[in-house]
């Protein structure tokens, strides 16, 4: 772009966002310059504060502003259950569902030896230490139902095998509101195997 | 999000970008925090500089860092032709094609009485003054082939009717590399009417 180095730099910088290519970055830059300067300035400040201020919670590894995040710091949520998730967005989805009131541990990934991600990288030792020190009675392994997620869940379960801790995995089945005709075979098989009496 | 006000604010701010909703904003925020902190900081600075530093070129109305943009300031491009476009991205597309070497005038919109956009809002008086003062010999009306774009082009042409200036519109036809079977009827009709001898 011959007309403005500042606009060039803005377009180039916007490309660091996931899923944003050259054309989208251009559209975003022009939108902000034409109609959203106040939004753009607010975004600039939010980015700057977050990039320097956001750290990992010492207890659950999730993003936090403080040493211990709001959830870990909440006594009411130390009820002996701990839910292990792969990412902050998984935690968020569970929080938005609103039913679960225990603690979390965020792996920030999954075991993936091919990418050099072993137990150390996703904090499994820290998780095991916490399970024991806090006297956790139920560990819910809510990693994704993918090959890596399953492997991670089994690895954690194996490491805690000798201890008297209930280890659970989220139920598979038909999504609420889903249509049977569109549900894949594996899910249907799981749903059949996990069927329950109507009176329950 | 209970765990971090800084992350909340970042997600909320990212939603000022066009086409970015809650889920996409979350994904962007987590991506930057996990894997792109340096990119995030760079974006923050680029936003801040652009939001305060980018202004409109006094001559062509395009975004610029200086009073007169690089294209308007280039003597070689004052060759008597002026191309009128609706937006900076249109200008950019023409520049990237690389063939046109004249000047530009960026309307930053099109006539749209229903939205309160009249000739004054898109700088038509300034355009006419420039056409006359610079002794423009050809005015290329490259507004979009939409109802508003056509109306804007006709309005400008009418205003210059009495003067001895060649006023042109970009050719309609089959896109290079396009397949005939997928071209719409209007475009095909234009392509037929605009057909040329093979030897040209």
Automatic annotation (TrEMBL), chains A, B:
**CDD domains recorded:** TOPRIM_recR (cd01025)
Which PROSITE patterns does the UniProt record give?
TOPRIM (PS50880)
Q: Which PANTHER family match?
A: RECOMBINATION PROTEIN RECR
Task: Answer whether the UniProt record assigns the keyword DNA damage to this protein.
Answer: yes
Q: What does this protein do?
A: May play a role in DNA repair. It seems to be involved in an RecBC-independent recombinational process of DNA repair. It may act with RecF and RecO.
Sequence similarity: Belongs to the RecR family.
UniProt KW keywords? DNA damage, DNA recombination, DNA repair, Metal-binding, Zinc, Zinc-finger
Q: Which organism is it from?
A: Marinobacter albus
Domain Toprim stretches? 80-175
The protein's name: Recombination protein RecR
The zinc fingers classed as C4-type run over 57-72
The answer, when asked if Zinc-finger is one of the entry's keywords, is: yes
């Amino acid at each position: 772009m011959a007309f403005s180095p500042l606009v060039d730099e803005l377009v180039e910088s916007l490309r660091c966002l996931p899923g944003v290519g050259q054309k989208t970055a251009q559209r975003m830059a022009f939108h902000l310059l034409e109609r959203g300067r106040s939004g753009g300035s607010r975004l600039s400040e939010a980015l700057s504060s977050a990039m320097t201020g956001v750290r990992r919670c010492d207890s659950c590894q999730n993003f936090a502003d403080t040493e211990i995040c709001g959830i870990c710091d909440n006594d009411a949520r130390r009820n002996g259950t701990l839910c292990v998730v792969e990412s902050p967005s998984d935690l968020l989805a569970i929080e938005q569902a609103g039913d679960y009131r225990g603690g979390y541990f965020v792996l920030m990934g999954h075991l993936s030896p091919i990418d050099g991600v072993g137990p150390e990288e996703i904090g499994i030792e820290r998780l095991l230490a916490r399970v024991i020190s806090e006297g956790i009675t139920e560990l819910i392994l809510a990693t994704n139902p993918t090959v890596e997620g399953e492997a991670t869940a089994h690895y954690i379960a194996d490491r805690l095998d000798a201890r008297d801790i209930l280890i659970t995995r989220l139920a598979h089945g038909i999504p609420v509101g889903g249509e049977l005709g569109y549900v894949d075979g594996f899910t249907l098989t799981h749903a059949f195997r996990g069927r329950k009496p109507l009176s329950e």
